[in-house]
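User: I've been trying to design a sequence by hand for this structure and keep getting stuck. Would you show me what you'd pick, starting by listing the structure so we're on the same page?

Assistant: Good idea, let's start from the same input. This is the structure you sent:
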């Protein structure tokens, strides 16, 4: 009986399958983010400028930390094991993208980038200029960069503590880079983090804790 169950059970997705899923998700991400970013149905709003925003320096070189978000999310997804974890990860991200698209379309916001001109020379400056050319100053709240980074990091909460802590620190560095590259306000970072916490609880923490309880009950019942 156990042999039959093992044969019929779905195998874990291989690395190429995960890469194909990740590529498809990135394509969907590009559409759901860039369309609201370039299409404003109403006049964008400016947001609250806090003391943290005022005190944070403009550091174009931190654009490389900003770009590492894509590596963080992809690598966290590739660490996932089994179809159950893969499905939870993909569902969480599609819900995140959908929420972000709805907010950015219905209530667009804008950052005053003109107050922070990019230097004329240097590789980092050229990279930041290219980023600003593709990613317009709109679509600020919530920061999808922050929400996506933390959501990916939170998906690893049940892995080794060192790995989980490293990813959370990495996500925090990316969150800080959204301020030092003057892509986002502090309120964008806070709302992005809050959104990631809610979705991580719904898709990762609560289902996995309940699954652990069910496995514990099954083990206890079989031992009687």
């Amino acid at each position: 009986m156990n042999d039959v169950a093992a044969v019929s059970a779905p195998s874990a997705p291989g690395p190429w399958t995960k890469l194909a899923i990740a590529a498809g998700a990135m394509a969907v991400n590009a559409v759901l983010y860039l369309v609201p970013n370039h299409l404003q149905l109403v006049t964008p709003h400016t947001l609250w400028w806090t003391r943290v925003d005022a005190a944070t320096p403009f550091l174009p070189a931190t654009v490389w930390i900003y770009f590492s978000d894509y590596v963080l999310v992809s690598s966290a997804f590739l660490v996932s094991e089994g179809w159950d974890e893969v499905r939870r990860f993909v569902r969480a991200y599609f819900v995140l993208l959908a929420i972000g698209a709805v907010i950015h379309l219905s209530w667009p916001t804008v950052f005053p980038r003109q107050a922070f001109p990019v230097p004329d020379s240097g590789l980092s400056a050229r990279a930041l200029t290219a980023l600003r050319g593709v990613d317009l100053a709109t679509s600020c709240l919530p920061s999808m960069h922050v929400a996506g980074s933390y959501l990916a990091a939170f998906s690893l909460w049940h892995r080794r503590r060192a790995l989980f802590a490293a990813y959370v620190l990495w996500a925090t560095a990316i969150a800080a880079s959204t301020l030092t590259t003057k892509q986002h306000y502090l309120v964008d970072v806070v709302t992005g983090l809050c959104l990631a916490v809610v979705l991580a609880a719904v898709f990762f923490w609560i289902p996995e804790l309940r699954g652990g309880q069910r496995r514990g009950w099954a083990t206890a019942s079989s031992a009687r």
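That's my pick for every position. To get oriented when you compare it with your attempt: The chain has one domain: 54-216. The chain has ten helices and no strands.
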